[in-house]
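Example S7 (structure tokens).
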């Protein structure tokens, strides 16, 4: 039996003890409150991620690799908005407070997106950035198909 919450497509951040989830599938038949709790708890966790200079041990996530990479990942967030998805936190929603010496870096807050359709490029392509999509499912077959695509 499949557990109601499936975590898929994980990637490690700069520190090996932190993991960022790209896609979270939540069973639709869960009561509304459980779904909301899952989304809200994920938002709370990601808002605790301190972004900044990786030399500072209090930071959990550093910069993206280049200006072009930041633009690509930010482009996926803008695409999500264009497609009618909800961007709940992160890029374009919350400001990134960085010290002056990091202001020119390629930093981006972890971003959570919901209401993503299976046909979206966010679901079909690898974002390779701090973006999490939270997607409901109704059957085990449906989520197995999506995770294995």
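Recovered sequence:
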């Amino acid at each position: 039996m499949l557990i109601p919450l499936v975590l898929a497509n994980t990637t490690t951040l700069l520190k090996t003890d932190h993991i960022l989830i790209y896609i979270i599938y939540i069973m639709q038949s869960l009561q509304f409150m459980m779904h909301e709790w899952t989304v809200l708890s994920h938002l709370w966790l990601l808002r605790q991620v301190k972004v900044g200079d990786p030399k500072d041990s209090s930071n959990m996530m550093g910069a993206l690799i280049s200006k072009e990479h930041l633009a690509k990942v930010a482009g996926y967030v803008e695409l999500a908005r264009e497609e009618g998805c909800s961007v709940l936190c992160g890029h374009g929603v919350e400001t990134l407070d960085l010290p002056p010496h990091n202001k020119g870096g390629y930093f981006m807050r972890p971003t959570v997106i919901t209401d993503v359709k299976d046909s979206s490029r966010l679901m079909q392509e690898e974002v390779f950035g701090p973006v999490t999509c939270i997607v409901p499912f109704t059957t085990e077959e449906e989520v197995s198909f999506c995770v294995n695509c």
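Notes on this example. The chain has four helices and five strands.
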